[in-house]
Amino acid sequence: MMESMIHNPMPTRAEVSDVANAVLDGSDAVMTSAETAAGKFPLETVVEMAAVCVAAEEAEEVELDADFLGKTFSRIDHSIAMGALFTAYHMGVKAIVALTESGSTALWMSRHKIHIPIYALTSREATQRKMTLYRNVTPLLMPTSNDRDTAMREAETSLKQKGILKSGDRYVITCGEPMGAPGGTNMLKICLVA
Questions:
Q1: Collapsing DSSP states into helix, strand and coil, what is residue 165?
Q2: CATH code of the domain occupying 64-192
Q3: Burial class (CB in 10 A: 0-12, 13-18, 19+), 100
């Protein structure tokens, strides 16, 4: 996407536009090839591309209400994921937390433009790796309890320890019962950090 940077330290206006439009079109990731594999300016390429992506994400307008008009969701887990986005957006929460085994809940959430970070906590390393490409999702590996309340407490504690949440922050969390069953997200809760 930044092919001129194989030989030049700055991208062309067209390349910057291409990267920005990819972000605005909802791409989960952008990539380089020869620019970083054989180019003269690999670090500069990554820095420029990252800066364009961040600027494009900040310029995006959130139209979450329009995304849901006239839509129906036949699956419970999909409905919970969309409900979490809608609730988080309208309540202005600090974060959305998804306890997930398969990563599907985080994937559905990542498809909508929202400027609230999504933290997807999973006990499966393969799921964590897969979710690294999901837009606006930070996947975290965390062993989870089979008890819902314990798992939710552990998630909050982990996010507090990482400095993501602090006392007084409000967040939305999703999970499923029974715990550990992929595709079983059936609960949404609004929490206040003590």
A1: coil
A2: 3.40.1380.20
A3: buried
